[in-house]
User: What shape does this take?
Amino acid sequence: MRVPLTHLDSLTLRRSLAALLTAMLVGVATQLAFAARAHALTVAVIGDSVAHDLGRGMEDLFANNRHVRIIRQTKFATGLVRTDYYDWNAVARDFLRHHKPDVILVVMGGNDRQAIRVHGRRYDALSKGWLADYERRVSRFMNTIKHKRARVYWIGLPPVRSDALNYAYRIMNRVYRREAARHRFEYVDVWHKFTTRGGAYSSFGQSLEGVKRRIRMEDGEHFTQVGRLVFAAEVAKKIGLR
Amino acid sequence: MLFPTPEFAIFFFAVFVAAWALRTLDEPRKALLLIASYFFYGYWDWRFTALLAVSSAFNYVAGLFIAGTKGEVTRKRIVGVAVAANLSLLGVFKYYNFFMDSLTDLTVALGIQRDMPFLEIILPIGISFFTFQGISYVVDVYRGHIKPVRSPLDLFLYISFFPQLVAGPIVRASHFLPQLTRRPELTRTAVVFGFLLILNGMFKKVVVAHYIAAGLVDPAFADPTQTSSVDLIAAHYAYAVQVYCDFSAYSDIAIGTAALLGYRFRKNFDRPLGATSLAQLWQRWHISLSTWLRDYLYRALRGDKRDGGARMYRNMFLTMLLGGLWHGANWTFVLWGAIHGLGLTVERFIKTHGHAWRTSRLRLSTVGAAAVTETATPSAAANRTAAIVGWLITFHLFTLAAVFFRSPQLDTALRYFAAMFSFQGGPHLLTPFLFALTAGAVAVQFLPGNKIERFAAKAGDWPAWTLGLMLGAGLLLIEMIGPQGVAPFIYYQF
Assistant: This one.
């Protein structure tokens, strides 16, 4: 027998339908939000204190961009020479396995101009034996971070105030470039972004607003807050993120 | 050339032997010490030895001019020019780019940005110290506290004497120059005193400061956003200990090496972390700077008038603000100085008005004399409570302000505080060893002072071989227990 709906029943039904519709809308919106988040490009920045500066710069640069997510694994005063102090191969392996980034940016080597000890033998920095062993270490680290679904960019060391360090960094950058090509990584050269027209190191440079600012710290190695942004923008431009 | 390195040990040994070989020949001995000092300075960057020489020559001439001028107005003008010239040197090398950068910030904010003429210059090591010594010399000559030095050798040596050249203590001309006119003596007590101070300094720098810095402070400040609150809280305490151990170590080694060469420098630190008020803290922390600021800046701000009221508070605040800026061309140092300035003025205000309030209560008291005496003398328990509360406030103000002092940029300090007060995460960097090291370094601040002087007086009679063994074994032990490598002293950058 068909029972006619009373006014009260009809009101309850309409309310129920409205609640259901609202719930569906919330559900769809949540799904869309998750989907958007899932499609955000995860960019991992790995390396020493210079990588820390780059990572912080990238975070600031993409702070309002929901399509790019920056994650960092950086450690001051580390590198590929003193594996007894900090084993980058183990750390990077765990970090990448856990986060599965789409893009990996590496800056490493700022602290590596020091003697290497292998099986009781000591190789002075930049000597023939040192270069051969350092190349092996770089290659091993590149094998560790190589991943099918991630694009890897090895960022060359930027110039610093010390001439002695710059001499070493130029040689080390050649090693990174060569090994990056061998491992099918892309090498990103940032050297000339931080030099004067004459090729000398400068503590000052154009900010993102186009004004001359201090971009390097007093130590002649690290970047100021403005400099980090300049560094990040340069890398982002070269890898096609901006 | 860093103190705790083999290079310095070899250098100092050579200077020590040569200086005492020339002990009867005053001028050649001073010339040797001058050459050694310029070698020590030039070892870092020889180009700046010219700057040091020009600064010394200028102050030498200025001193002679001031003393040779009769009219008060002219004397005042000469000393004004001399002080301005010294400050200009500091201004160009230390503050010019900071000023340009801050000006750029302002023009960007106003939307009228322009490229400023920045200078690609390096901060010469020790410039803040030798400039302040130059100022103290010309002002002391002007005030009649000392006579001008006739021998350029004496003045050049006073400004550049290597134990204190790059990181203090800021030696006063009135204290050091008279020592150059006397023949130095190497007493057994002075040797033991020097050895003990060097050992003490080496232990504080190589062991305590280094472990704390490498294990806790540096990683925490490198990236506060990725450090737990517990570690950040621990690191901010640890940094206060690190900076104390680092800087007082430099002063100890400087005073110790000077003593071994036959010269006395005054104490630069006296258990400052145990201070129960900010005023007391600044009487015990970097004493040579705080007394310099009092005598040459605060006094200059005060002028001839008797200080009191708002003017006194303003001068006190300005002195600390500029004292903060002296440490470095960065807004973090300005804020650090402002915090201490504000703290000192508030403390002074409370003390002054608290005293006035207590006095008025006594006057109004209608009870008998015995009762007044009872009210006027606080009990031992009340004194102890006041000291504990005072210490807690002073210590925490010092450690919290030190976050600005340590942070390379203002945003690092702000991130540090945000992460520290988020109260998230457990200890990862903090280990029982680092905790014990930090707590132990604070605890020893409450032991009686002058331990080293008293021990040196006792051990002065010990045989030479015992003393040699003690120094050798001590240095070896420090080298063995300290971590690898030597970090530069914090105050080198100032």
Notes: Chain B has two domains: 19-184, 189-493. The two ends of chain B are 16 Å apart (CA to CA).
